[in-house]
Amino acid sequence: MLDMNNKYKFVKFEGGYHPRGDTKIAINNSGLIRLSSGFCRITKATNFTYAVLFYDATNQAVAFKFTEHLEKGAVKITKDKTAATLATKSFFNANGLNFKSHFGRYDWKKLTISDIGEVYIIELTKK
């Protein structure tokens, strides 16, 4: 008789896979942007109080600049134990974007842009 115990190597599925330390930026269905714990650890985003957002319509890109200074349009960073959230519904509406269409998790890149400074960028067309 053939031993079927060696044929299969089952691994139990225990729910959604979002490993701790993930560095992505996520947009959810209610207009919030979630900065993952890995992103916050690498960028020190939770050391700041505000984020200033910029939108490039041509490249469909969002840039985040973290700051301690309240300025026009700045969004408060809501912090939890290891990650952070930005309430960005008004940002999406002001730029004619449907946040539900951009639901998902995004890779980011860090750049220094003249007249703005150091920013973290996600491209809405690249999840």
Describe this structure in words.
The chain has 127 residues and is mainly beta. The chain is built from two helices and nine strands. It has helices spanning 37-43, 89-94; strands spanning 25-27, 32-35, 50-56, 61-67, 75-79, 84-87, 104-106, 109-113, 117-123. The protein has a nine-stranded antiparallel beta sheet with strand order 7-1-2-6-5-3-4-9-8. It is globular, with a radius of gyration of 19 Å.
Could you say what the CATH topology is called? At1g16640 B3 domain
The main sheet comes to: 9 strands, antiparallel
Named at the architecture level, the CATH assignment is: Beta Barrel
Strand order of the largest sheet: 7-1-2-6-5-3-4-9-8
Task: Please identify the top-level CATH class.
Answer: Mainly Beta
Q: Uncertain segments of ≥5 residues (pLDDT<50)?
A: none
Strand content: 35-45%
Order of helices and strands: EEHEEEEHEEE
Radius of gyration: 19 Å
Helix fraction bin: 10-25%
Q: How many domains in all?
A: 1
Q: Which term fits the overall shape?
A: globular
Total E-strand runs:
9
Class of secondary structure makeup: mainly beta
Distance between the termini: 49 Å
Please give the count of helices: 2
Mean pLDDT: 88
Question: Would you kindly provide a brief summary of this structure?
Answer:
The chain is mainly beta. It has two helices and nine strands, in the order ββαββββαβββ.
